[in-house]
Sequence to fold (537 residues):
Amino acid sequence: MKILIIDDDPLVRIALKTLVNWEEHGFELAGEAEDGEKGLEMIERLHPDIVMLDIKMPKLDGIGVLKRLSAMEDRPRTLVLSSYDDFELVKEAIKLGADDYLLKLDSDFGNILEVMEKLANDILDSRRQKKESEQFSQQVQKNIHILRRNFFYNAINKFYSSEAEMAQSMKFLDIRLESDYLYCFLIKADKLRVMDGEHNENVPVLSYAVVNIAEEIVSGTLHSYCMEWNIGEFCVIAAPEDPHARIPVEELTTYGSRLVDMLREYLNLPAQVGVGEGGSGLKGMQEAHRNADNSFFNRFFKSDETVFLWNNTFVPHQSKEYLPVFGMKDELFEALNFRDAKRVGSMLENVANDLQTMGLSRGEVCNVVLKLYYMVSEYFEQNGADVKDVLRSRPWGYDDLIHIENVAAARDRVLSLKADLEQYLKNDAGGSGGSLAVAKQYINEHFSEEISLTDVANKVGLTPSYLSNLLKKETGKSYSEYLIDLRIEKAKALIRSTNHKIYEISEMVGYPNTFYFSRLFKRQTGKTPGEFKKQPV
Fold:
């Protein structure tokens, strides 16, 4: 720890040099100066850690030196030397950033070593915190795509409790979506899913390329963030640079067409794009994604097109909305996720009965069955399964569905769908509980590592969304909440049973940033780690 003395009194300088065996206490006297101007020159050249600074000097006094130091990016810590009648100057020096002061005639600087060691400890703490902060920032940047993907996944799937919580995460991840209108581009490249099923090693490389191409195309007038949603499915969330602008439909269509063209040209990858618009904030993001997702219903009617818009959904006949089938999508997906065969069967049986009693036209009946089939296909596509392996009792081609002859045939179709899904859920029922137990065991064994929901899901052979739902159902907690609670409990046990320092325990439970760990610990327990350690067991 280097020290520089700036004082015009040679006797004071001698006293400061001889009063304490500085080297014995870890300090190095780097130099001395008799006035402020020479002192500043030596500060620039020697870069001392601590400057002992006389407040009254010729040419440039201590106040002047402090004013000049305030413009330095990495200024040294300062200890002001004053007399009894310099109190007003001392107050000004403290305002200018001086760390402490000593009276020259106070017992020959009797407490100088105590003050200097305090400053040295503060410097070491600041350096350690800065290093930890830099390491944490580097780790964040290294994993920024994963962290952003998790953020959007949580936001769109309603795992955020409030706009304030979402805004805090966005600021941390440098996500700029402050806009009256938000947009979602869903890219579906089914060829990738097929390749993945064939264990083609090029799938990760192609997926990475899709993300880069998409982010490059949907930029310029938009802030955009692209992530791989599922194998063969990519999601781009975007906002105009002008927070009050609304992107014209024609421009959105152009973005979608360019995405399709560039993926075909550069990657030889056929793709389709669904475009959705939403309002602002958390609900707007969810709305944009939902609209983009629903726009793919057009694929059943416009198989020759590649870009589908949320505001141009094709319906072959005028529907009376007696059966708002899309309104049951979330409930149906939830029941399938929880392997609730009884609930799935009840929902589809209600639809079958409604078809028979509502007096719908033939076109409307066909539309209901098409929508149901679309939703079921979408569910299994998202979860990496082929719907043809589930719906085995009869063919489900487009021509089969639009040529349903009557209500009785349509009702029979829905009941057939019900029977196939119930059989699938029955066959699959045994695996979920065991998989969740294995997942919890894996988390418990690797809690100190950087493990994401996707990492754990891959280990047990489940999709992230399904594992998240299972965990939420059993524990009432999201994956991140479950992991935080586990880490804090481990930390509490270590604090009580070991003599490790707090920063060591922080690293042991998976938090290299001690400051962040302390904030989490207090949020969970109501006490800081230090306070928790002092309380009786």
